Amino acid sequence: MRRQTLFPTLTKHEYLILPESIGHYWDDVDHYVARKVGTLNNFSIHFILSGTGYVEIDQERFLVKRGDAFLYFPMQQQCYYSSEEDPWDIRWVHFYGDHLQSFLSEKGFQRFILWKAQKIAHLEAAHEHLLHKAEQHCLLQLSQISTATYAFLLEFITNVQPKHLGEKTELDDRIHTLLPQMQSKACEPFELDYWANEAQVSTYYFCRLFKRATQMTPMAFITLCRLQRSKQLLLKDNKMTVKEIAERSGYTSISYFNKRFLEHEGITPTEYRQMYH
């Protein structure tokens, strides 16, 4: 069974947070999701009310059941699915907002994917309120939808504890602590030695840790940050040339910038600007 509400993603809005989709699935043995790195540009929270399922992280499979939750950041690789023998009853929200990356990272929520809810009934009540509001108002009352989404996020933040996966956690923390810094400096020349020194490991080990912690290479992360910056500039100032935007986004070659943008977005920077303007 599936109950869900979908929203269009708004590129310009005044809200701290907005949902992209909200849903509740149960008795659905075919619920299987696998997304490659860079596929989904929003956050998502899932939590299980009953039954069982699996989340795959770094080629390892983890069983999840009642009270367990998982949180993905934008562009992360994702793989999760219901058990066929004991299908899960799962609720979820996909959401986005300009300042959520730093807000959640500062509170430590980029360090783990798996979480454990202390009071699952409270989380369920906040989600049901949000889902009901979405079904009732959809785009007609965005302020109420935004408020309900933020209330759900706060309930999640204050309700859960990390579900530790073993000794890997401490080393992964070194990488996640650096991510906001790397994002802010993404448009500068990328120096692998510098970031490896910041993590206090060799460049080889830094790349291994980074891949394990984020499911992508350091350069792939930098590329996503640069492209996100370029998309903001394309929409912010229509008078700025694509060459200027490429340079401000960390690309000295406009042809290479166009190539990377086309690979990730499916359209050229000029087409992207024309589509949204």
UniProtKB/TrEMBL annotation:
Residues 173-275 form the HTH araC/xylS-type domain. This is AraC family transcriptional regulator. PANTHER family: ARAC-FAMILY TRANSCRIPTIONAL REGULATOR (PTHR43280), HTH-TYPE TRANSCRIPTIONAL ACTIVATOR RHAS (PTHR43280:SF28). The keyword Transcription applies. Keywords: DNA-binding, Transcription, Transcription regulation. It comes from the Bacteria. GO terms for molecular function: DNA-binding transcription factor activity; sequence-specific DNA binding. InterPro entries: AraC-bd, Homeodomain-like_sf, HTH-like, HTH_AraC, HTH_AraC-typ_CS, Tscrpt_reg_AraC-type_HTH.
